[in-house]
Design a protein that fits this description.
The longest helix has 18 residues. The protein contains six helices and nine strands; from the N terminus they run ααβαβαββαβββαββ. It has a single domain, classed as Vaccinia Virus protein VP39 (Rossmann fold, 3-Layer(aba) Sandwich). The chain has a seven-stranded mixed sheet with strand order 3-2-1-4-5-9-8, with helices on both faces. Strands 6-7 form a two-stranded antiparallel sheet. Strand 2, helix 4 and strand 3 form a beta-alpha-beta unit. Helices cover 30% and strands 27% of the residues. Helix 1 runs parallel beside helix 4 and helix 5 packs across helix 6. The structure holds S-adenosylmethionine (SAM). S-adenosylmethionine (SAM) binds next to helix 1 and helix 3. This is Class I SAM-dependent methyltransferase. One of its GO terms (biological process) is methylation. Keywords: Methyltransferase, Transferase.
Length: 237
């Protein structure tokens, strides 16, 4: 598949960034600001070490998005997924709550544009994205918060645009399954939510995002106690 040369969003396609997310993300933002450098060191700067399914899902996502369209990596962290997707030929803009994560992302992935903002109030104009990713970025959010994010995902996607969601599976996403108090070598304060694929699909479906495919991968290694879910959806045209 060939892609036209990458393009960045114009200023008219961006809206003013919201540096403080309304979803009460101070603890999440602060935790990720603290771990940003260690996260990039420990998790890696690309997707080379990821299981084959992850790379496969991302390839399907890129090939399902309209050629030439800008793709958003929402909750992009240090930009490892944005950089991988850019390497597959897509133009990418990354958005994240944490200025610390974004600093590392901008340093390590110069081919990607980045903006600060929360997923319940994205700094992007309506209908501007041909595809959007939330790759483990909803894992600190309750079902109610994900519902508010889903409205934003639907708003910023163009009709027919593709959404790809990666998350940790569990029986119920209404309350944290656990709390992370120490991660990547630092003290943090992060609620961890896990949910069934059916629940994730239903929340997104309420906002006109229609499931086209799902992958459930069994856990790998000790750091993954539950299966991992990946859902591809399309915004109704
Ligand atoms: C587990 S990390 C995943 C980062 C990246 N997607 C990856 O796979 O490496 C979660 C990221 O989501 C971001 N995040 C969490 N809640 C967010 C929100 N409400 N709005 C924007 N970003 C958020 C965090 O700052 C963090 O960078």
């Amino acid at each position: 598949m060939t892609f036209p040369p990458p393009r960045a969003l114009t200023s008219a396609e961006k809206t003013v960034a919201s540096p403080v997310a309304p979803e009460g993300g101070a603890a999440v933002r602060g935790s990720y600001d603290t771990v940003a450098e260690s996260y990039a060191e420990l998790v890696g700067r690309g997707m080379e070490d990821e299981a084959v399914w992850e790379r496969g899902v991302l390839r399907v996502f890129v090939e399902s998005s309209a050629p030439g369209a800008v793709v958003g990596d929402l909750g992009c962290g240090t930009g490892r997924v944005a950089g991988y997707v850019r390497g597959l030929g897509a133009s990418v803009v990354g958005v994240d709550l944490s200025p610390g994560m974004l600093r590392v992302a901008a340093r390590d992935h110069a081919q990607v544009g980045f903006a600060a903002g929360g997923m319940t109030r994205l700094p992007l104009a309506s209908g501007v994205l041909g595809g959007a990713l939330t790759w483990y970025s909803t894992v600190h959010s309750s079902d109610g918060q994900v519902d508010a994010m889903a409205a934003e995902f639907a708003r910023v996607l163009a009709p027919g645009g593709v959404l790809c969601v990666a998350f940790m599976m569990g029986p119920d996403g209404s309350a944290p399954a656990s709390w992370l108090r120490h991660a990547y070598g630092h003290a943090v304060q992060l609620p961890v939510y896990r949910r069934p694929v059916d629940d994730m699909s239903a929340i997104l479906g309420r906002h006109g995002l229609v499931e086209t495919a799902r992958v459930v991968r069994q856990p790998v290694g000790q750091h993954e106690p539950t299966p991992q879910g990946f859902v591809l959806l399309r915004r109704a045209a």
